[in-house]
Design a protein that fits this description.
The chain contains 12 helices and 19 strands. It is an alpha/beta fold.
Amino acid sequence: MRAAVLHEIGQDKLEVLDDVEAVGFGPGKVKIRVRATGLCHSDISAMNGVLPQPAPFIPGHEGAGEIIDVGDGVDGLGQGDRVLLCWLPACRVCPACKRGQTELCLAGFMNAGTPNFKRPGGDLFGFAGTGTFTEEVVVDAGCAVPIPDDVPYDIAALIGCGVTTGLGAAINTADVEAGSSVAVIGCGGVGISAIQGARLKGAAQIIAVDPVATRRESALKFGATEAVSPDELADAKQRVTAGEGFDYVFEVVGKSATARTAYETTRRGGTLCIVGAGAMDDYLQLNMFELFFDEKRILPSMYGGGDVLTSYERAIVLWRAGRIDLEGLITHRVQLAEINDALAQMRTGEALRTCIEI
């Protein structure tokens, strides 16, 4: 079967090969025919080494398709079921799950170190234990979440990561208060979803911050009340908040420099929500006095900060009701053979989300 492979960490292009095989099928597993997958910035971060990932590997973790085989012991799933892929399934029995913090379950991460593909040259890993830039993938049954028949594969794929992450950051983690002021730094697919979440929660002012003009224009269509470049953020803070700072600031880039800017843009007593996934050696510096004196809440948001199955269902209901726009997030479509075009679109900021149709 075909798959897009990164041979070594640091390479900037993928090679589409036709000699890849999905392996590991057995009890508790399902095999999925991938129909659509989104390109998330985390895929690029894994390719360049910002996020830890064994290589060689197949990127992709935001996908949807149908089940083509079910292993022994799997209940509630069958051949032909339409599913989205959850890259962080909850085991429901670990301490985090029992506390209701299923997004902190580590069971899914254990799969990332086990190859689930092979080719004549050796084993291949799937990014985050999945690897959706391929025609077929074998995953734990918990990674396959059934979707209703009226949800297209491309929409389901987005819900599998970017939409859930962004919406959840605003709704679950930050719990944005109606009438508040919000700034969102980084307006790709996740940032736009955070903007939509803040709008749903009733934020009065939502300032979108991004260096790419087309993304700023898009942010206004999705609910931002104003869109500025990073150089204009200080002026927006002064105009919108009289210099006090925003009630909520979402950092959706994953870099310490933008996180520091976000901290300084948050008002005293306000909330800084960290959504971007950054590098292990990129440290955010804060002094002990400002931590004490400013009383700003710093809330990291992992995968939307809530139960992902509940978040999936909520996104579908909101989409059906026309309360969130998911079709508009897909600005580009490519075939698997054109995957490197999608990478270029992501790196330049041209795309909010590129859908790879497989």
